Amino acid sequence: MPDIQLTKGDIVLSRRNLLTTGAAAVGAGALTGTFTSPAAEAAAKPTPSTAAGSIPKFAVAMPVPEVLRPVRRSWNTDYYRMTMRTVSTEIVPGHQTEVLTYDGSFPGPTIMAESGRRVVVEQTNALDTPVSVHLHGASVPTSSDGYPMNVIEPGGTRTYTYPNVQPNANLWMHDHAHMEEAEHVYRGMSSMVVLSDAAERKLGLPSGEYDVPLVIRDVDLDDNAGIVFTMDDSVNRTTILVNGKPWPYFTVEARKYRFRVLNSTNLRWLAPFLADASSYTMVGSDGGLLEAPYSTPAVVLSPGERADIVIDFSTYAPGTSVVLQNLAGTGDPAEIMRFDVVAAKTEDHSRVPAALRTLPALPTPTVQRSVVLTMDEDGRPNPMGYINGKTFDMNRIDTTVRFGDTEVWTVSNGNVTTPHNFHMHLVQYRVLERNGKPVDPSEAGLKDVVALLPGEEVKIQMTFDSYRGLYLYHCHLMDHSAMGMMAQMEIV
Prior knowledge:
The protein is mainly beta and 492 residues long. Helices cover 5% and strands 39% of the residues. Residues 89-197, 369-490 form the Plastocyanin-like domain. Keywords: Metal-binding, Oxidoreductase.
């Protein structure tokens, strides 16, 4: 098998050598959120729990999250009700695991939304801790953005209104309660919201049952199959789940499929890669479709990033199986799931056109800013995260933005060993350059999360012309944001 390499910025991921070039000192542990030297990593290699060690790979079918149905529809709005509650589910065969959910599903149900048509969701908190619902990637009024202190107390209900004024995008819903978000998301609180529009549907991409979300996460399980949460634990979360099931198989017909891939982990980087080194086609990222499709053997996804990909299984004979691996993983996390190919039921009329969309021209920026992400990496027992040297303070406005301005932010990772990424609420941005060079096609669309290995720097551009109010920006390695790597901007 060839040693496929994938470049993103100044890193090269390969089957033989996970990180080379200037980032070599980071080691394999870099892509799980905290640096571990090769020697320390070997010494700290986890011993799987009895329960996790009993999970057979590719033995359980991958479910497709259900599509949530509106409770009511008007001429311009779809109304939904969801209840956040604890349920038990089978991750390890023969064991029940307690998880936190939207509406009792792990992951939560998918909401199918339409650009230009409002979605109103009444959320009820049946958990025993406060929650705040954030629709990641959406342009929404601050009252519905899921601000960390605008919580729903246990037993309470809050209504969130999503205007959906933006074009097609793969959004996702997750908790954002202050100091609770990392554990809540880790224990299961994630759910996809697919925003579509007429222009996307006209393209002829695979649709219906051939358009499938892949919500990927990792978890550490104890001997009783209970979920173990330890802040910033990058070593022991070695059980990979896809749509809530461990290393599942998914039966596909010998035809094209569209997969909306979400990295919903707290810390782990993913690089989905077909084990036979076949390329697939990337058609979209965080903020929707790319301008043109991009053929690649793998796409690097830091936590929170999405990739919209098309895999053509007609190149495989029925009866063939192909494993989807994680090029950014070692040990158990090196495998994600397996596709089992059967004969196509009908002729495949889907296609991937050469042009997908036209992004608007970038306006001339009016403001330049610099943002530096760092966290303590000296081994202290309770490390903190910082943006421009400060931890999060809800009483401090870190950045004031004038409504309508176009700004360029230079975002850098000031750490020597620890990776980060950068997420902004309210806006989708364009990544102008990485380390002074043009970005590769996977980052050329609309983004709301951008990855940063130690020492890396990116320039991003966005226009603040949708809503005024208070919004967040932060590292989306969720444990890092809960450790203080979060700041506030006010659009005035």
